[in-house]
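[agent] plan:
  1. take the single chain provided in the ticket
  2. run structure prediction with default settings
  3. attach structure tokens to the ticket
  4. add a short note for the reviewer (M.T.)
[agent] executing step 1
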Amino acid sequence: METGKRGNASRDSDTKCIYLFKPTLVHRTYNQLWADCHLELSRLLEEELPVEPLRPEKDRVVFFQRVAMLYVRYIQIFRKLNEIYDQVVHPQKRRFIHVILEGVMGRVLELKNEMVEKESSEYHYMDDILHDLKLTPGDLEIPIPRYFTSENDEEVQDRKMMAIDMLNRLDDTKSTDPLVRNEMTQDEAIRIIQIVERARKGRLRAHLQIMSKKRSVVPGAADRESAAIRIQKVWRGYTGRKQAEIMRLEEMIFLGMVMDPNDEVPCPAEVAVQANEASTRIKQEEHEKDYQKSIVAVTNKMLEVEGPDMSAMMKDQIRQWFIECRDATGSFPDYPNEEDGGSALIFVEKDPQQLLEDMATKNEEDPSKKAKGKEEETGQGKKNKSNDDEEEEEDGLKMLPSAFLSDLEVGHKKYVDFWKNRDESTNFVQRHEVELIKEEKRKDIEAEIRAQVDVEMRKELDEWRLEVDNEKGGKAKGNAKKKKGSKSAKKKKKEKDLTSERTFESLCEELVEEGLLKMVKDIRLLEYLGDYSYLGTTLRQNDIEPMPSLSDVRQVLSLYGILPLGSQALHEKAPLIKAILLAGPAGVGKKMLVHAICRETGSNLFDLSPVNTAGKYPGKGGLAMMLHVVFKVARLLQPSIIWIEDTEKIFYKKVPKEEKELDPKRLKKDLLKCLKLIKAEDRVLIVGTTKDPMSADIKSFCKMYSKIILIPRPDYGARVLLWKELIKKKGGEITCKLDISSLAKISDGYTPGHMVQVIQNVLTEQRVSQQEKSPLTAAEFVPPLVKIHPVLQDEEEALKNWYSKTPLGKKRIMLATGNEGEGVPAKGKDAKKKK
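[agent] step 2 finished; step 3 output follows
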């Protein structure tokens, strides 16, 4: 016992030491991981920004391999930086990591766009690259940063909370309706009485049968020895079967065919890691609050201590400039305008004469110079025609220009110069550093003081002119410039605000009452289960276009929907996607994906489905008002998603007779106009879902939706995963008697929605409670499965044929057949020769 106590005491002391040094170990770990990320990033920047530009690549396969390799490597950096940002507590480090993280995310989106443009497909299969880099398909999963939902602006967060409160109040009013309204008819009452009476009679009949059997048994028929032998046989058979089952399970665990039941339960180490991560996030919030308070305190102190000295130094320099300009030119200069930077122009290292010349050239431009410039441009254009012809001969596949590489290069240089070798031995708790705040805020304070100094020095300059030269200066030109600016501003047309007199709260209430603003379900994207497509590369090598897997759909939606909506900087710089179409048969999870995008990005959900808008806001004026209010509130509550279920009804070729009263096509023209008004700074995404795209006009469909994503039936791997997880979620137990493989095989053609429906029918509360005595079998799921009509292969082929008529589908066919150049009109001399 004593040795056991000593052992426990030593373990306790070890754990105390671990927790004592845990912060240091954690910070060292993430600092090392951060250094590894920048090492890999430096290698990628050297490849993408070489000293000599790369020549165009003529081989499409080689070019795609190069882009795909960069894409996979950037995803690995993205995954690591996301983990670092989530666990680092130093507030100034987190801000720097945030900039690099968004730059890497933006580069991933650019490379994805590059691959789509060059391969003419939304889905790509990179088995050979994964093999070369020794990665698994799980390493290609796009992580979703937590800060998309946790780090929103307070104003936007308050607006969202207000909208959620309105939706909750509406649900409460609906749920508090009196129950008396649901009156029971006489037929329903008679049916319930009949069911109860028949059940009573059945129980009584069963009880009488049991009693009659007990009376027929003759006691004393078997002697004690034969009874004992019989009991022994039964017991030995039972224990033998149990022992065989245990041995079989141990063998399967040893071979790796079955997971050890102990491993299914989270081990203490995993629980401890989760607790540490939660405590780290609490520390992040505490350090962030201290950092914000310190910023205010340091700024005020610098204004008090350094502000007067800065102001006096600036005034002395400006006065010296006044005197130098008068000595050089004989008159006082015009004070630079605020638009040009004010007195900031004065502090540039130039002579007074040079500065005056620069200001003069900005204010006035010689028309003769413009004419000369045009003549020189035309002359150069004639001379460079031959050079253009030579460049055309060297045409090939080039990388599109990037909006993020320059930011990544600057950020990496800052890391090397400042953070890489920084000594943090004294900052054990990883709180903010005051000196860094002073360096960051000094420029802002200088700009604030300079604006005040400019106002005072303009007045002083006018006083000097009056006293020395007896003239008033500097006002006419400034006023003229302002007038010119006002004329140009008047020319720009602004959107008419139809609800300028109404408050934001009233607009939200109206949308909630009309059912256009909906509550978002708590669904994560990882709940959309699906396996990797392992045959994609093989099928493409045999010139067969594979259907995407559910895992591919999840990844594409992360790139097109979640990442741009989650970050404002990313949405403004990355390739702009205004509308996405999800096309697939009923039950594949289109609605679930819409709610998952909203949940992961913290977006609000607006419903403009034809069924939901039917009868609301009648007339042309009402329709314009509805769309105006929806898009206005969506911009104010951004990020926002505007969902259009059964969107093919808006673009019907021919409206069915039974739907003519709903007038589903009334949104078509105005919706396309609203789509054009969405800008890069508006984090608003239109998501349409359709199960019958063949009934719509494909031209207008493709004008509306720039990205069309096919969602297929689940393949065998996805069905195995779906059956397992859905049965567990409903309370079922997976045993060796439940043949999941056979169940997945016979359920070919059934969607996840069908599987959920079957599991709900089978796994009732009574059946779940009986699992210990009678485990689940695959045969129980067959009868309800047979009653459901599956998605046939012909329906999937029809969907593929429809997709081949879209712009991207046509490009893919042309690329596969080798007729990529056909159908493109010739330009220049070649066109004349053909004529």
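[agent] step 4 note for reviewer: The chain has 34 helices and six strands.
[agent] ticket updated
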